[in-house]
Amino acid sequence: MRMKLTLRLIPALMFVVAVLPVYSQVGAAATVGGIPVVVGGGMSDFLLDWGPGQRMEGITAWADLYPRDLPRKLDGLGIEVEGRDTNFGRPAGISRMRQDTGLGGAIYAWNRYRNFRPYGKFLFGIGSIDFPPATGSTYSHDAFLVLAPGGGAEYRVWKHVWVRGDYEYQIWRHTFGPTDLTPQGFTVGASYDFRPVRSE
C-alpha cells in the first residue's frame, strides 16, 4: 500500500517540475506587493515508532509567516504552523493506529539563493494517537505534548510555486509512562509563496 502511494506521487511530482518552468518569466520579476505568507501541503511517510519497522502515510498542510522589516541578520526567521494526519497504509498488526499532530513554532529559511531555499525548524504542540487497546481494556486514544525539530529545502519550479522536501523528528513526551514515542519521517509537497518574486 505504501509503495503504491509513493509510486503514484513520483510521476505527479515529475510532471509539475517538468511542465511549470515552461511558463516562467523572461524579464525581471516584480519586487513589490505580496504578503509575507507561504502555504502548502503534501504527502508524508512516517516511521511510527510503534512495533518494528512499522510505517504509515499521511497528509500534511503548513503555513509560514515571515515578518517584514526584521534586522538583516534575522531575515528568514518566521513562524510555521503545521497539521498532519498519519492515517493511511496501516500495518496489519495495528489496524487501529492513527497519529495526528497540530504543531507551531519557529522556522528559519536561508533566502540567499533565488530558486533554492534550505530551512530548519523547531515546532511543538499536541499529538493525538489512536491505538489497539490491550486485552480487556477500552483505552485506545490519548493526546501528548509533541516536540518536533526538523528541516528540509524548497525549490522554485514556477514563479511563486515551490516544491518542498521535509524531514521531521517528533518527540511525544512521556507516552504511556517515562518513555518517549519518537515517530519520524519525510514529507514531499508543494507550497505557494505569496511574497514578491526576487529579482536576479
Structural summary, described in words:
The longest helix is centred in the first third of the chain and has 18 residues, at 2-19. The protein has an eight-stranded antiparallel barrel with strand order 1-2-3-4-5-6-7-9. It is mostly beta strands and 200 residues long. Residues 9-32 have low confidence and may be disordered. The chain starts with a helix and ends in a 7-residue tail after the last strand. It has one helix and nine strands. It is elongated and about 60 Å long. The chain has one domain: Porin (Beta Barrel), CATH 2.40.160.
Indicate the proportion of strand residues. over 45%
Distance between the termini: 44 Å
Structural class: mainly beta
Order of helices and strands: HEEEEEEEEE
Poorly predicted segments? 9-32
The CATH topology comes to Porin
Average pLDDT across residues? 84
CATH architecture name: Beta Barrel
Total beta strands: 9
Q: What sort of overall outline do the alpha carbons produce when their principal axes are compared?
A: elongated
Strand order of the largest sheet: 1-2-3-4-5-6-7-9
Q: Note the total helix count.
A: 1
Helix percent band: under 10%
Q: What is the chains' assembly state?
A: single chain
- The tally of structural domains comes to 1
Strand count, sense and closure of the main sheet? 8 strands, antiparallel, barrel
User: What top-tier CATH class fits best?
Assistant: Mainly Beta
Rounded radius of gyration (Å): 19 Å
